[in-house]
Design brief:
Blueprint (H helix, E strand, L loop, with lengths): L1 H5 L23 H20 L5 E2 L8 H7 L4 E2 L1 H12 L3 E5 L4 H10 L6 E6 L4 H5 L3 H18 L3 E4 L11 H5 L3 E2 L1 H15 L25
Parallel strand pairs: 1-2, 3-4, 3-5, 5-6
Length: 223
């Protein structure tokens, strides 16, 4: 996965893949997002303190995106949010291919981000994330089958991958099926690079930082 992320590095752009200190085995359920949240936010804060220009959250659950943007001033990008925006510029009917366990979170994001009228179908790639990362042959067969179904059965004109573990399957599919295949981490990384180059970041009116509060007995101190 590190090589796939660093392919977008270029002169003046350094990409570092940083694992969080602790977290669940996978990131497919809201419970797993909640368990990982403190460690994600800590990593985002440390990145800003270390002089990093932007952060990309590497999961299509878009874990704690709002909280991360409230926490720092540097751009924080997430793959589903970025991928939907890019896909919407390439066609009017978007088919999303995601994991079975992440379908509900994806659907909630699609509605919350305002893309529910542009997503024409949702498709399940029913194999473990670990097998996707290892590029098992049967995973590609499932992806190809669901793309064909999206095109023939739902008249999709853009395919959006809904799991960052699917990054290694993009090559060749666009030419084979004649439609854009949108890989969300590529979108998030390159949008982050673009924002930095334009001197832009998220609005602190929209993503307001926490006010200074008193500490009540038994309360959790927020960094």
């Amino acid at each position: 996965m590190t090589v796939q992320r660093q392919q977008w590095a270029r002169p003046g752009v350094e990409i570092e893949v940083v694992p969080i200190e602790r977290g669940p085995f996978s990131m497919e359920f809201a419970t797993e997002e909640a368990l990982a949240a403190p460690y994600i936010l800590d990593a985002v804060r440390r990145a800003e303190k270390d002089g990093v220009d932007a952060v990309v959250l590497d999961c299509c659950v878009d874990p704690v995106l709002r909280a991360a943007r409230e926490t720092v001033r540097i751009p924080v990008m997430a793959p589903t949010h970025s991928g939907l925006h890019v896909a919407s510029m390439l066609g009017y009917r978007i088919a999303v291919l995601g994991m079975r366990n992440g379908q509900h979170a994806l659907e909630e994001h699609i509605r919350a981000y305002g893309f529910d009228r542009k997503v024409c179908s949702m498709h399940v790639v029913d194999c473990p994330p670990a097998d996707l990362i290892e590029s098992q042959a049967y995973c590609l067969e499932i992806i190809e089958r669901e793309i064909a179904l999206a095109l023939s059965g739902h008249r999709a004109d853009v395919i959006l991958f809904g799991c960052t573990a699917m990054s290694g399957y993009v090559g060749g599919l666009a030419d084979r099926y004649g439609v854009p295949i949108v890989e969300p981490m590529a979108c998030a990384i390159n949008m982050a690079i673009g924002l930095v180059s334009m001197g832009l970041s998220h609005s602190k009116i929209c993503y307001e930082a926490l006010p200074v509060r008193g500490v009540a007995p038994g309360s959790i101190d927020v960094p």
